[in-house]
Write a structure and sequence with these properties.
Elements lengths: L1 E6 L4 H17 L1 E9 L5 H13 L3 H4 L2 E7 L2 H12 L3 E6 L13 H6 L5 E5 L9 E5 L10 H11 L2 E7 L4 H20 L4 E6 L4 H11 L4 E6 L11 H6 L7 E5 H7 L5
Length: about 270
Amino acid sequence: MKKLLVPIDFQNTTLNALKYSVRIAKEFDFEIHALHLIGAADEKAKAEKKMEEVVKNFEESDRKRITPHITVGKIESDIGKTAESLEVSFILMGIHKKSRLDKIFGSRPIKVISESKTPYITIQEGGTLMPISKIAMTIDLEKESIQIVEAAIDLAKLFGAEIILVGGDHTDSTLKSKVAVNVKTTRRLLSESGISSSVKLLDRSHFMENFIDFCAENKVNLIAATYYPDTFTVFSNKFVQRLMENEACIPVLTLDSQSVGKLGKYSF
């Protein structure tokens, strides 16, 4: 049985993520692991009581799918370690819309993602996850920009979704050629997996705004973007951060390129 990990801080945003995980679990037969990290062992009894109250809000059949975990640990490292030890498919994490992503449970989100080998799906306050029929995957010059494809394929298969590859429209012939190679490679992988795909190139001068507008206008349900810090292009290390706080509240699928480069079957 496939597994989801849902970090819980007992705030509405993370409880909302837990609700969505239950919907996924019911429809696609997932096992849910709800994780709350504490700073010291003497906090465990109080946290267990809170978690019990949260789980009680679900129907009995849904409660059976949820396994609570109350663990002493650090946000930055132990969400990822727990996900790896449990062999979960995705980490489903609620984030606060007005936090400007300065903090997630007291920690920078990119730091949390960079410490994990498991893909994250982030949901803003006010965002929705289901149903997913269209996934917009960002793609550009670096080969790392397509490292998210394995996780995107898994979700596309799960939900029966199509994938739109979205990149910047370069004028330089050399740069345009690099993007074309990545597009061709990705579409081949998608085709081999039976996933329908299309391509859209957008003006790079205001790429972020153009991309989010495109997603909203085309009713995209999920954005997929690889986090890779070592770049000076429009897809900089702040790009995924900005995506996760997008005004349209579209959920974002992401993971660290260094981790997937070592582990993913679609490494380049």
